[in-house]
Amino acid sequence: MVEISIKYLGDLRCEATHGPSGTTLLTDEPVDNEGRGEAFSPTDLTATSLGTCMLTIMGIVARRHSVDLGETNVKAVKHMSTEPPRRIAKLEIVFTIPLPSDHPQRKLLEAAAKGCPVHLSLHPDVVQDIRFDWVG
Questions:
Q1: Distance between CA 45 and CA 51 in Å, rounded?
Q2: Which of 62, 57, 54 is nearest to 95 (CA)?
Q3: Among the listed residues 123, 3, 117, 120, the one whose alpha carbon sits nearest the alpha carbon of residue 60
Q4: Statement: the pTM of the whole predicted model exceeds 0.70
Q5: Burial level of 40, CB count in 10 A (0-12/13-18/19+)?
Q6: Angstrom distance (rounded) from CA 24 to CA 16
Q7: Residues 12-35: pLDDT tens digits?
């Protein structure tokens, strides 16, 4: 169990504090939803959570199998619905992995990423377009 404390700061801005570490982050509504767009929005954090979770789980499996992921990068792109209700319609997750496409652990690493808790927790109506680009 992890407790996160959230405080409303006014003007559609919140501050969240991670209980165990004391680390804080701000959220702000995007400009297209009456906010200032000066920080991650709550839905931005969903896209961020998916990308970081997938990469972290891949990293755990890579470490267990002595695979160096080098400077693997993930780009997360969030698409909001155009019809009410306002919701995340699609998340694009693109991995750029500096390893050859014929790497012997490729299938294992891709399966690990797709087994991350955030990926498995999102509603099935949220399209998850996941691509792995092996560029080594």
A1: 10
A2: 54
A3: 117
A4: yes
A5: middle
A6: 5
A7: 999 999 999 999 999 999 999 999
